[in-house]
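User: What would this chain look like folded?
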Amino acid sequence: MCPARLILLDGASGAELAGERIAQVYACPAAAEPAGRLADDLGVRLTVVPELADEDSVRRADAALREIADQHRGETVVVVAPGLDLGIGSPQAKVVIEHTGDGWSVLPGDNEVTLATYEQAAERFRESIPREPNTTLIELFDHLLEPGSTVLEIGSGTGRDAGELERRGYRVRRTDATRSFVEMIRADGFEAERLNALTDDFGGPYDLVFADAVFLHFDRAQLRTVLLKANKAAGLLAFTTREGDGAEWSNRHLDLPRHITKWREEPLRALLAETSWSVDHLQRAKTKVGSWFHILARRG
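Assistant: Here's the prediction, encoded as structure tokens.
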């Protein structure tokens, strides 16, 4: 029989559940009110479980989760329990677990699956995308920076944008979360470093953080984290992301899954404002795969 899939949330935001089919919501008593609103939004029932309170023992919480899992074989449920610690890894806004019989197994998150795809298919990705840099994005800030300005590029990928940025006189720190792309860039004769935007420090300060076709792989909570880190690292931020509703898995070109989160303009502007960014320019661009936002934001 299929195991239950439990999504543990540190808070009761439905933003982390895009694309999920939820059977029920469970919560500790302290989170009952926000979890109730989440359950209403999802159109499912809420059950409050006292044993999930953070002051209770790991043993009691584990037993309560096992009981939930037994009731929902083959289904996905949400558990809202801030501070819950089962000894399954570092606390995150969203953790997905299954019970294997011997204990809890943490499932790879959407971003981890996406990174694994790029790790396996870096060469195929280079062959599938245009070789030209994204000059539409670069032109948004080119008049603001002087030659010699420093740029942190998140998700350098094949290196196509970094070359154009350097041609215009900027000093670029090429980074990527995948070893395959870092090695590809080094093989082309450039310096590159591994940097995971979700877990690593950005360093700096820089004049600009640049991220072309990277932020679409983050859910709302993850993007909020990245935007806050970028705000500490630079005064300007230039990025692209997909326009649309919800989230999807795409196998386009690579025959391997990549998770994509889409945005509408107002929620995206609201998240930027929440993380202390003001939008200088927002442009839309149509491509074969859909509409994109090209955004230049300023700290403050």
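The longest helix spans residues 58-71. If you want, I can go into more detail on any region.
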